[in-house]
Write a structure and sequence with these properties.
This is Sulfatase N-terminal domain-containing protein. Helix content is 21%, strand content 12%. By secondary structure, the chain is α+β, with helices and mostly antiparallel strands.
């Protein structure tokens, strides 16, 4: 059964007999019955990653993603027993657990599929194929499209990536030779930020990702 870290908050609140404001629109689910009684989890999908900066898949394109998703972007999502990867998936090797043997250093082991050159979309049945060795993307294009659509839905509510350039002021040579807090905010900006934090944000209602995910229930019957 699928359980995500976002499910712990609503689950613990329920155990504490607390109440959650429905306006918050949490993405997490109360999974206590799944844990304690072995019932089906209300969660059917998990977004593993969307990295819009990591676009090293040279052959990735919107066309490869059926006009739904740019497959140059590294991403991964699981829905029911399906897992979809796009972009450059990275290394497919694994390092065995540390042992006390004196035979020699551990070797790298190729334990996953060999990625086809130019390919930027993979689909796996994670239940039947936990090692992700058999790519089913060409066999089930309709499933690929549905998972790409789900990726697109998640991405619409994603916080924009903020990856600022290196600041030379962080160099330990300029801070007593130690790594530590180095940014000093001037008084004007400090007061401005304090005033902004003091204002109450306006409430806006919108569909959460968990509400949008109900349309994927059809995948459970695949």
């Amino acid at each position: 059964e699928l359980i995500h870290i976002t499910d712990w908050f609503p689950t613990l609140i329920t155990l504490a007999e607390g109440q959650i404001d429905e306006d918050i629109q949490l993405d997490g689910y109360d999974v206590w019955e799944t844990i304690s009684e072995g019932r089906r989890s209300p969660r059917i999908d998990i977004l593993h990653n969307i990295d819009p900066i990591y676009t090293k898949a040279r052959n990735g394109s919107w066309a490869a993603g059926f006009g739904i998703w740019n497959t140059a972007i590294q991403s991964a999502i699981r829905v029911s027993h399906w897992k979809l990867l796009t972009g450059n998936p990275g290394y497919g090797d694994w390092v065995p657990p540390q042992s006390f043997s004196n035979v020699g250093p551990n070797r790298w082991h190729n334990e996953r599929v060999s990625w086809t050159a130019g390919k930027t979309v993979w689909l796996f049945n994670i239940t039947a194929d936990p090692y992700e060795r058999e790519d089913l993307s060409s066999k089930y294009p309709s499933i690929v499209k549905q998972l790409l659509q789900r990726l697109s839905q998640f991405n619409k509510t994603a916080v924009p990536v903020r990856y600022p350039p290196k600041d030379p002021r962080s160099n330990p040579n300029f801070n007593g030779g130690v790594w530590g807090p180095w940014f000093k905010e001037n008084k004007n900006n400090k007061m401005l930020n304090k005033n902004k934090l003091g204002k109450k944000p306006k409430k806006t209602k919108k569909k959460s990702n968990r509400q949008k995910g109900h349309s994927l229930n059809c995948l459970l019957n695949q």
